[in-house]
Amino acid sequence: MEVERLDRDTVIGLFAMAVGILVVANDFTALSVAIPAIEKTFDSDVTTAQWVVNSYAMVFGIVIVTGGRLADMFGRRRMFLVGAVIFAVFSVIGGLAPDIRLLLACRAIMGIGGALMWPAVLGMTYEIVPDSRAGLAGGLIIGVAGIGNAMGPLLGGVLTDTLGWQWIFFINAPVALLGIATVLLVVPRDKPTDPGQRIDYGGIAVLSVGLLALLLALDWGVDRGWTDPVILLLFTLAAACLVGFGLYENRLGETALVPRSVMRKLTFAMATLTTLMIAAVFFGALIYLPQFMIKNLGFTAIGAGAGLLPVMLTFALVSFVAGRVYEVLGAKLMVSIGAALLAGGMFLLSAIQPATTYDQLVPGMIVLGIGIGIFYSSTTTAGVTTLDASQSSLAGAIIYMANVAGGAIGLGMNTAIVVSSDTLSDGISDAFIVNGSLAAVGVLIAILFIGGPIDKKRLRALRHHHRAHT
Length: 470
Fold this sequence. Notes:
Blueprint: H1 8-30, H2 35-42, H3 46-49, H4 51-74, H5 76-95, H6 100-128, H7 134-161, H8 166-170, H9 172-186, H10 201-224, H11 229-252, H12 260-263, H13 266-295, H14 301-307, H15 309-349, H16 358-384, H17 392-419, H18 424-449, H19 456-468
């Protein structure tokens, strides 16, 4: 396939999408280094404070598919703008929250705003680039998300140690306004691609109850005991809802939250499943590496934010390169390599002990960052491009739902493991072994079920180009 050049309008449009991605991505990680400070401000424990991340992630993960539906029904540009306003307003309210309950409520509503923005950005990005540059679109999305993620801990650390963690929320408002202004200026009004769609409220409700029950069981089980009747009831409710969700969605067919025709695409279904299996890796590392740096190594919040740079910068840089390499190597190789590196990074970091130094963490973080950069850009492109262009917002939303919902569950699982252990380092080690094992299963799924041929002609061209310069 001939690779088309990008014209000026497309480049400007991609810049607008990058600003929108940055708005959401920065917020995902900025609070990771502020959890100890939030614990102190509200006199709470880590199982409560981690809901500052989890409440946002869970709502984001559940609502994002609805966001994809709404983007296709009412226009991607319009839904981005609505989501950005919600995100900005409740960021400010969250920063002013006098207690942790209001803070968690604001985080949940911010999740709604982010869930409206993200699929709209995904759909607009893949829509404005030619088919031959789809890998570039995936690399751009995940690469800019990586920059936002990389900025988050460092910016969050600086703000926490200087102005206070509340400013992590306040700063979201001007960034969101920048995104709104950029989109208004350079992205033309769009028309709904499928205005006849309906929203599957029943599916949303069943999935929401199931995920909430599972997260509560993981959260409360540490204190109440895993055999407590309430915990067993929550696990039972979660299992019933998640099984019921699958049966209910199958019965609804094309009007379901996850349409039958979408999940029948093998590459898409397996990309989604692989993402779900691996989601705990990024979330676990994002929360518990800073916890170790602050509580065991004596880092400040700024130091912990800077300490995550080997993961975050590698993630961002590799994402951009991965988009081009994907166009040559195809989905199977790229997703499999990315998942394998994620597993390897987790197993390296699982060697953590009370006496572990920061330098000993760096190799595992670099491997992890490379894996994140390869895996997420590749699995997103593999899933989105296997469906019709009119379903790109929905496709991206479903994959991201798997990532965020799976990450929220994985973080709850990691927290349960960590707080049940004798020491922080022992708990992190055990949690990371579990995460690495899940990533290894993801490798197997990718190898067996995700398709995507290698472009042998372009691979030969790259080899000849390399030899000509050596």
